[in-house]
Design goal:
With 170 residues, this protein is mainly beta. The chain is 4% helix and 45% strand. The protein contains 1 helix and 12 strands. The strands form 4 sheets. Strands 3-2-4-11-6 form a 5-stranded antiparallel β-sheet, with no helix packed on it. Strands 5-10-7 form a 3-stranded antiparallel β-sheet, with no helix packed on it. The longest helix is centred in the N-terminal third of the chain and has 6 residues. The protein starts with a strand and ends with a strand.
Amino acid sequence: MHTNFRMLPALMMIVVSHAALAQSSAEVVSTLSVQRITNQAEGKEMAGPAASAKPGDVLEYVVDYKNQGKSAARSLVVTLPLPTGTEYIPNSANPVASLASVDGIAYAPLPLMRKVKQADGKVIDQPVPYANYRFLRWAGLDLAPGKNRRYTTRVKLANDGAPGATLANK
């Protein structure tokens, strides 16, 4: 089955957020792009348009921030939603993401862990599956005037063909 990948305009608007800029004259602009990553015969990776993708394909989200203001943006918080129907690829975030979330409310350091009660009653910590990660976050960053900063991460489209926020089955 072939799946067309479509980015929703709403996702483009909410995909990154910046919170509490200490300087009111800081003007931070963010842009998001997504590209499909393919491996060439010679083993080299190639990034291309993500207009169409199928289960198992790797997509890379690229978020660029630019401070167009005259003062530093302080305590910048970058939050990148990971669409339903995708699985976060571990260690693909650059720079290394500091936090992740399954619900967009509670954030914790990577890898995410959860408490699981065993049949014998013992409670153990167990890793949360990467397919359950819905948000990555980079927090407490400063961006000087005129400077740019790029954040990237990769996800793999689910093999089960589960429809998600940005997937449409054809």
